[in-house]
Amino acid sequence: MSDPHSNPLRTIFSLPVIVAALGYFVDIYDLVLFSIVRVPSLKAFGLEGQALIDKGVFLLNMQMAGMLLGGILWGVLGDRKGRLKIMFASIFLYSLANLANAAVTSLPAYAVLRFVAGVGLAGELGAGITLVAEILHKSVRGYGTMIVASVGVSGAVLANLVAKTFDWRTAFVIGGILGLLLLITRISVAESGMFKQMENASVTKGNFLALFTDRNRFSRYVNSIMIGLPSWFVVGVLITFSPEFAKALGVQGTISAGNAVMYCYIGLVVGDLASGLLSQLLKSRRKAVLLFLLMTVAAVAAYFLATGVSVTTFYTICGALGFGIGYWAIFVTVAAEQFGTNLRATVATTVPNFVRGMTVPITMLFQFFRQPFGLEGGALAVGALTLAIALFSLWRLEETFHKDLDYFEEFI
Fold first, then answer.
1. What is the number of domains present in the chain?
2. Nearest in space to 255 (alpha carbons), one of 213, 322, 306, 187
3. Less Cβ around it within 10 Å: N or C end of the chain?
4. Quick check: is 323 in a domain?
5. What's the domain range around 100?
């Protein structure tokens, strides 16, 4: 573990932190690219009107279902085989999937490749956060994970710029190439010292089922997942379908999903920086998450009160939504800090992907409530539910800011 007192900046901006941040940058680029190119790509298959929403939800759910499965796969392997191996194996898989996605000629093939890409996209963040949390001293690890998340989410900005400059197939090719280029950086990065010490220890590693066999572990695990629910309600519903919401709200102009994603993620970059700094200043992860959840409540309210506003005002609200859910870095860090070394990668990888995978029931609930309550009412109902669950789960979690991570989970 790095000594933060010898050279704090060099410790925080070490090569593993930079590589993890760049890996998450490419991950986010590919993750949000579908939301940006949803309309033009589906129109290329001859779809119009309501079908753009219905098939868009289907493809998004296929991607998220892949991430759900991939989260378990990469998480377990991360504790058994190493953080670095999993981080780069996942990058390799989603890079190939996105290259293949560029050549897709049918909707079923599009769905299969979004699922495969989802499996690949599931591994990078959890492995990267675990690696950074284990190599940095507890007094500065919040800064390290803040850098990973802040640099990473800015990949959405690049995705929007690329999608505006090139057609949707070329945008997928660029994402695949960026991922393959990133694999070169693996050569110079060392594995976590905590994992190396665990390799020779007679301890059970990556036992995913153990998260469900003990009440205390199960509670920590479920609550770690639930505090992240509002993030993917915002991204998966409010931002992905922002053109449809803007039309229903009477926004004075045409809203682009790509621009909505870009402004949301610009807010997310700033939010991740702010929440990371705030958690270090307050010396509390829980207080920082609480403040950002409350800001998300305010931003969601502003979104649905934006009747007849200008395009600029609507995009500003999208940025505010991104800022509110900008506790993503702390959210994953809290999950990693809740568990011992022999379960840490499993948890840190599955938790964000279970949240991403929750996009499936979230969008299904949105579709269900949309029938009786309309577009806006259905989204409000789902948003209120996710925010209430997140606040309750945060109340149930312990503070982990000062926690020493060099220990094992004991199984009976």
1. 1
2. 306
3. C
4. yes
5. 15-184+211-396
From CA 387, how far away is CA 229, in angstroms rounded?
7
User: Cα separation of 355 and 366, whole Å?
Assistant: 16
338 in Cβ contact with 404 (< 8 Å): no
Residue 54 sits in a domain whose CATH number is 1.20.1250.20
- All residues at 6 or more sequence positions from 398 whose CB lies less than 8 Å from its CB, including other chains: 220, 338
The Cα–Cα gap between 121 and 66 comes to 9
Please give the Cα distance from 264 to 266 (Å, whole number). Answer: 5
Maximal CA-CA distance, the chain:
64
Helices 15-43 and 124-135 pack at an angle, to 10 degrees, of: 160
d(CA 180, CA 30): 13
Q: Phi first, then psi: what are they for 310, rounded to 5°?
A: -75, 165
- Residue 8 is assigned to a structural domain of this protein: no
Beta bridge pairs of residue 310: 252
pLDDT (tens, 9 = 90+) of the chain, 412 residues, equals: 545 555 556 667 777 888 888 888 988 898 888 878 888 888 888 877 778 878 887 888 888 888 889 989 999 998 888 888 888 888 899 899 999 999 988 889 999 999 999 999 888 888 888 888 888 887 888 888 888 888 887 888 898 889 889 999 999 999 999 989 888 876 667 776 777 777 777 778 888 998 999 999 999 999 999 999 999 899 889 998 899 999 999 999 989 887 898 899 889 889 988 998 899 899 999 999 999 999 999 999 999 999 999 999 999 999 999 999 999 878 888 998 999 888 888 998 999 888 877 877 888 898 888 888 888 889 999 999 999 999 999 999 999 888 888 888 887 6
Structure tokens at 380: 């409000």
| Rounded Cα gap, residues 373 and 109, in angstroms | 34
Q: Is 412 inside any structural domain?
A: no
Is 350 exposed, middle or buried (CB count within 10 Å of its CB: 0-12, 13-18, 19+)?
buried
CB-CB neighbours of 50 under 10 Å: 9
Q: pTM for the whole thing?
A: 0.82
Q: Provide the CA 148 distance to its chain's centre, in angstroms.
A: 12
Within the chain, how many helices (H) and strands (E) appear? 19, 0
Q: Whole-angstrom Cα distance, residue 119 to residue 104?
A: 18
